[in-house]
Each structure stands twice: as C-alpha cells, then as structure tokens.
Amino acid sequence: MSVTNASTSAGTGKGTGSGPTGADGTKGPIVNAAPTVFINLYCTIVVRSHVPVVLDLKNPNYTKWLSFFRTMCGKFGLLHHIDDSALANLDDPNWVQADYSVKRWILGSDNKESCAIFLSNQFHSLVQGKLSVSDYCQCIKALADSLRDVGHAVRDSQLTLNLLRGLNPRYSNTADDIANVTPFPTFAQARSMLALKELRLATLYSTL
C-alpha cells in the first residue's frame, strides 16, 4: 500500500506544448511537472508500537519476540523479506525499499545484543531449499556481515560449516568431500566446489 506525497501530487505528468510567452513575444522553456513520489506506509511505522517485547539475553524471549515481529511483517505483506527461501529482487525499487525497511526494524529498533540474537538464529537456521548455490551463499554472507556490524563477527570456518549444514540434499556427497579436505576449505573455496557441482548437475539433467 502507498500514499502519494502531497508536495508532488499537483503535477499530473510531463508538460506539453510551448512554455509561457514572454513580454517580447518569445516562448519560454517547457517546465515539466515533478514526478509523483510514493511513500510506503511501513517506512514510517514505530516498531515498538507493533512489537512490545524487547529481546533480552538474560531473560530469553526470542520466540515471543519473533511472534510479534512476524505478525508485524505479515500485516504489511513483508513476510517474504524474512523468509530465507525467498529470492531477492534487487532490480525492483519497491522490493529494495521494503527490504531496507525490514533491516532497519531489525537493526535499529533494539540494542546490538538483541539484534545479534535474531541474526544469529537466522544464520544458524538458514537452509538452501530451492536457492541456487550463488544465492544461498549470498544469503549466508549477508547475515554474517550483519552479525559483524553488531559486534558478532563470524569466523570463515563457521561460514563454511554453516554453508554445508544447510545444503540441499542433492549436494550431500560434495558436502562430505569438502568436510574431509585438509586443511579445512575456506568459504570461498567451498562455494567454488559447490558451484562446479551445480554446473555439472545442470549439464547432466539437460542431457536426460
């Protein structure tokens, strides 16, 4: 849902024809009306009015907090922005605006420790599902970057382990191979090995 910014609603589109005639009879430049700007309602909400629970490390209440947070996202049609299996649509300005709004709710509504609880849960429960290897790795890296920003950096070995944990079962053999490599592969190395396996599987299925 969106509302139109009042400061721009006076214009109805681009101007047509010539501009105003000056005192000397010459035509002035054509002045186009400003484009209409849409402001999504969820960009201006106060999170605490929808999520009255503050995450607390000393009094674990993540489940209760998440219930309120999911309800708020559902109210504004934004559940797919906290669904790890949903694909990002970075080419859609509306999707990007919504995604930044949800991130602001998570990172800006409570203290860093509260944010870390939520992000850590998201990180350790992430699974590949139907995501490509590239998109799955991007999701893992984005969550790790967010954890770093709130003071809980993720080691590279943890990235690799979490990558293997949530893989689609069709990569189970490759995951075993990666886990048995010495020294333990970096996240970038594991991603490359899985991308190669994905390419081979795609080639195999295309010939069947």
Architecture overview:
This protein has about 210 residues and is mainly α. The chain has one domain. Helices cover about 50% and strands about 5% of the residues. It has helices at about 60-75, 95-110, 110-125, 135-150, 155-165, 170-180, 185-205; strands spanning about 1-5, 40. Strands 1-2 form a two-stranded antiparallel ribbon. Helix 3 packs antiparallel against helix 4 and helix 5 (about 155-165) packs parallel to helix 7. It is globular.
Structural class: mainly alpha
Helix content: 40-55%
The largest sheet is: 2 strands, antiparallel
- The count of β-strands is 2
Distance between the termini: 46 Å
Mean pLDDT: 78
What is the N-to-C succession of helices and strands?
Answer: EEHHHHHHH
What is the CA-atom radius of gyration, in angstroms?
24 Å
Number of helical runs? 7
User: What portion of the residues fall into strands of 2 or more residues?
Assistant: under 5%
Backbone shape: globular
Side by side, the strands of the main sheet go 1-2
Low-confidence segments, given as residue ranges, are 1-17
Number of domains: 1
Descriptive tags:
single chain; globular; 208 residues; disordered N terminus
How would you summarize this macromolecular structure in one to three sentences?
With 208 residues, this protein is mostly helical.
